[in-house]
User: Fold these one by one.
Assistant:
Number 1:
Amino acid sequence: MYVEETLYLTVGELAERIRTGAMTPVELTESYLERAKRLGPRWNAYARLMPEIALEQAHAAQREIRAGRYRGPLHGIPYAAKDLLAVRGVPTTWGARPYATQQFDFDATVIARLREAGAVMLGKAAMIELAGGMGYRYASASLTGAAKNPWNEGCWTCGSSSGSGAIVAGALAAFAIGTETWGSIVCPAAFCGISGLRPTYGRVSRHGGMVLCASLDKIGPLARSAADCGTVLAAIAGHDPKDASSLPREQAAFAYPGPGAPPRRLRVAWIPEQMKDAQPDVLAAADNARRALQAAGASVRNAKLPEGPWEQAASVIVAVEGASAFDDLISSGRSLELADPLGKIGGFINQQISGVDYLRAQRARGVLQRKMGELFRDYDVIAAATENVVATKLSANLETEIPIADPLGAIGNLCGLPAISVPCGFDSTGLPVGLQLVAAPLGEHAVLAAAELYQRHTEWHRRRPPAV
Amino acid sequence: MKSNRRRKQTARTEEGGLSRREFARGATVAAAAIAVIPGGALAATALTALPQQPAGEGPKLSPAAMAEVEAKVAEILRRYGDRLDEAQKADIRRLVRETQAHLEALRAFPLENSDEPATILHLPGPPARHAPAAPAAAKPSVKPGA
């Protein structure tokens, strides 16, 4: 069994050891499984461990590598996938009681692509019920209970990729797959002190994933470094005819040659206005991140987001598309079986939003996308704290105790923009703070270049939660 | 033709109606009042996860907007009322009212006839590889969402 320190290595470091034979996929998988069995229930991190499948895949990877058929940097690397991605023959619960026994007879495209890359699937990561699609008031809005943050077990991991955050932060897998409609990759990354990449809308196929909001849903990686996120994205990105929103082949494709220096000085738009309500420690960490970027050679200038009702528009779109996607659940009254008091009734309310209001939101979205396009003429990335708060208490009423909008979440998702959250410090109680970098559509290389630049000059992503 | 029509409509909006800039100033208050659960601002969350109002209070709405609230609540109770307890009914009334305030803010945003829904993201040509600042990669579409 490998020791805890080894299990906290990055995908890049593990891959090099596996490629050279210094480490084996089977022993690595067994080590992660042992740790996941021991700590997964304590943090409510996994919805389901799949040791038989994992070991079968690990043995297959080991045989291939020993035979000289090394597939690439994910070959033999153990990971977890959010429990809204279909895996053939295994329950896919969407984190919700009404779907507790649901099974599919096919694999989601992302699962299939990771299998082709040789990655080893350890299990399904816990999540907020229906990815928060009906609303939620408490961290406990999940079939598997509130996910606990490895940095402080009295605090939440954020959602809706709650288990994915705990799994990566606690070294229960080398990386995890999450999804984001609005904030569900970058917020768990920020709360859990890890890196999380939200791809451009349409770059990663959602086929086989639960649909919450067809015009906003994205799938992306959570990992221990920006470079790891790039490596995983390269494996899962690409056109998929099974997903109607999938970008054309030449746009969806993503190649990642590994971390490297930006070809020219990075231009960063800093958005202080979106952080005016931030907790003081969050603001201090963000200010330090700004200085670190400047010291690393980036040009950082204050800028403003375009004005407009992004949050209202995004909210209406998600609410109506979610009400449509789960119309059967809501109309049958079975949404009352959800765990969260807000989730039980949220769908009833969202059904009442008119088609005219929905299309008004979509039309406003077009206007806002054009305005954001103008901002990216002058900047490569825009930056702010990922969240204006650190991880909340497990018992917090999220309606009343976090009345602060996420700085770049609404506009970033409304415009389908790629983003990454990377750790940039801690508050006075030892909870992580995240820095978010957002680029123009298809600008994944820009956000990765900016994040890699930052991580080359800082060590926050190397920090680990207290040993357990 | 299309671009000419757009310019005329824009001019008319700026001269005779509420300009986008004026709207933005007015909407700031509404936008700032939105509470978003970090990362979980999904679907109903964003619309329904709003700061709780003291009993009997809520966002100020016009009589027409309040009538809309009452109609929506009545419809919810007609469909689901027999399965809801009194606390849930009260929650629904509060949340519908708060949702209505956000719909009103959205409705105040001026749109032109030619502003099309951006349901699918359309992008420019293929990006340059590993080029964060290269013009081809960094420069977005003029109209990325249309």
Note: Chain A has a mean pLDDT of 96.
Number 2:
Amino acid sequence: MVDHLLLMLWHALLVSVFFAFLWRRSTRDRLRLFGKAFALMAVGSVVLGWLMYVVP
Amino acid sequence: MTKEAGRGTGGSEPIRKRAAPLLLLAAWLVPGVGHWILGKRRRAIVFFAIVVCAFVTGVVIDGELGTPRPGEPFSWLATLACLGNGLLYLGRLAWINGLSGALGGIPFGLDGGGDPVAVGFTYGNTFLYTGGLMNLLLVLDVSDIARGEKD
């Protein structure tokens, strides 16, 4: 079963954790970057998806 | 794991180092191994898990490994991205084509697997590309750590 939203969230999760560990060293900083990146990708994708409705 | 390759004058000029090629090769072949060798064990495990998860997800939902195709320049970019997965990519190609088929099919006779009409095809491709590109970033990170530019 392939759920587009779940796949997008799974992708965002993997990429967010990856960059959190690649670019930050402390747990606190990693959590902050993870939260920002994940939220940006997850929410941003949904918003962009809705905006595409008005694009012919 | 590093060796000096610079021409330091002994003054204030920083000594330039170069990461060992074998270290970078290992980092490319198996995600996270470069960090493991450099003593960054926790990061190594996380990176290994992430790249493997991305690759396996891509394969499971019928993504296609990038392989070169004649007359399609972008297929080379897809190949480069997927090649970043290291042994995962090479092993999957050997699995699909057979070892002799994979070796004999270079460069234009390789089958990348996947199912173009599957629902997850483009998603799968994205996961495969992402996994490879993340591993290439890891190789650069290993190089930086080995040269002492990062911790």
Note: The beta strands of chain B are 2-4, 17-19.
Number 3:
Amino acid sequence: MCVSRSPIPEAVVAVESLTKRFGPLTAVSDLSFTVSRGTVTGFLGPNGAGKTTTLRILLGLAAPTAGSALVFGSPYRRLQDAPQRVGAVLEATDFHPGRSGRDHLRSLAFSAGISDRRVGEVLALVELDEASGRRVKGYSLGMRQRLGLAAALLGEPELLVLDEPANGLDPEGIRWLRDFLRTFAAEGGSVLVSSHVLAEVAQTVDRVVIINHGRFVTEAALGELTERSTARVHVRSPEAGTLLQLLGDSGITAELVAEGVLNVVGAPAERVGEIAAAHGVVLHELLTEESSLEEVFLALTQTGGEP
Amino acid sequence: MRQIRSELLKLRTTRTTLGLVLGMVALVVFTVVIQLVASQFEDSGIPRIEERDTQRTIFATASTAGLFAVLIGIMSVTGEFRHGTIRPTLLFAPARAALVVAKGVACALAGGLLAVAAVVLTFGIARAWLQVDDVEQSLGRSDLLAIAAGTVAATVLWAVIGVGVGAVVRNQVAAILATIVWTSIPEPLLMALVPNVGRFAPGVAADAVSGAPGQEMLSPFASAAVLALWALAFVVAGSVVMARRDVP
């Protein structure tokens, strides 16, 4: 992808104290985050968290109630040659059903002074050249997703903004998208991709920004998020009651979850084993259970961002 | 310029425009023939075909193009909201007022072509009919030219008005209904009750520009100026609303 090295701050996206209200409803509240050049950033949160609203403001479709959302240091609507710098897909269904895929792209290309040759290139890139003459009405959801992506790529942008691009894609489509975004980033492009399922983008993104109820929850490299996952120690013992008491004395949180079964949080298995041994408690099972990335995400979005 | 090219492509690449053209052709042919047949009867209460006003009404049927032009204008904006293409459109052309103007220009061109087709059709059928029936044509060359030019002007302005209405209303059905209802009920009523005000209404002004006979209307030139002001007002209103309101 063509990446211009302009003397612009490293943040290609800068959202600052962004607030958006629709009447009495606050969709986004005092939200701040940035996307650095050359990274793939996942923008995560449950449905209704305010992701789409934030992206609409970022792309100049909606105006902020307060705060700002800038691309390359400028509001989208004032960005010079915007289609050549930012490519975006907000909805997978934004086509006239009676117009062919190629004509859809040509109409957009015309308005940004992009050549017909480039239209052919992006169609080939998303593997739609054969279907391009057909009316969009007959396209599958996967084909529409790719046509949307083709439109976003028309201007050879350096930043891609995609809202829930994996929605409705089959596993093969998701893999295709992942490889595509990885290649795009490897060639120097930056990506901001939203999703309500961390697993969909976990293999694609370098960083995540998590929001909930329109508020910032956390921002972290994907690795940091994994580290935050709290391991749980599963203990089975005929003397579970005694062990619970002993752990409590050592200031370790544990819970009797079933007859003879304890769940211990906040202490490694080694420590639990040592305490048991020191007091001669018999253990039948001692097991560390890592919580998955998805569980971390769910835990964060269930507790975080509450007003 | 680029945006105008894009808008013209959009008009050409769906079946909507084709459908509207065919609809117009059918309606023009039907209306012209019905009027010609009806004016054969002396006792029908309708002025007879020899009369100047009858012939004027028949030739002015070409102004039917205005209805289809306003639909093209409305749908060029509301269609984008209906199908969501407004999002990619605005991502590629973030200057919203310029988008409304470009749509206005593209639809004006389409409206012009529509009007020419309607004039050719109407004049062709009517003149052939009069000739075959051996009826004296009471409208001179300059009258016909005035009707033709007026029809083209009114149709072009209707298309522009449609774009403005579409940009203000956004909802396709609401915009179309509002336009059709407004021109068919309150306007004629206003003209009948308070002609001093009614003659400035867009539908009445457009009729006067297209050369339809009628009492108390402004002159075709004054009416053209009034209609042009309406078109300007709608485009300005559409541009302002477009620039300010959030896009879903």
Note: Residues 2-244 of chain B form one domain.
